[in-house]
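// run 5 | inverse folding | seed 20
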């Protein structure tokens, strides 16, 4: 079996973000819905433990005693910043936004898109 460092980093991240995601999932799901009703079809939620210049701050970690800051953005900003260069591949990989949250994780050892399923109601 091959040990993929990216998968290991993704698993490590998911373990550290699960607690925060349980607290803010409903807010992220509603923000995703609001963006899509305004014509932004591919919402992206950048998250980082530090302050970043991607998107707009949605939830500061201090507000809810979280470990991660959560920002809100969309595909067009990622294209403008050249963080997404193959738009069609991104759109094909993008999961149903009613069921999955598209996170852009920025951490010391890992920077990538992660799709987490929203908790079932």
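// decoded
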């Amino acid at each position: 079996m091959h040990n993929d460092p990216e998968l290991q980093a993704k698993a490590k991240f998911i373990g550290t973000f699960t607690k925060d995601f349980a607290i803010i999932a409903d807010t992220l799901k509603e923000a995703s819905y609001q963006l899509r009703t305004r014509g932004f079809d591919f919402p992206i939620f950048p998250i980082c433990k530090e302050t970043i210049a991607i998107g707009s701050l949605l939830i500061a970690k201090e507000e809810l005693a979280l470990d991660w800051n959560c920002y809100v953005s969309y595909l067009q900003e990622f294209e403008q910043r050249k963080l997404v260069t193959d738009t069609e591949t991104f759109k094909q990989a993008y999961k149903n936004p009613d069921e999955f949250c598209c996170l852009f994780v920025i951490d010391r050892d890992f920077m990538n898109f992660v799709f987490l399923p929203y908790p079932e109601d």
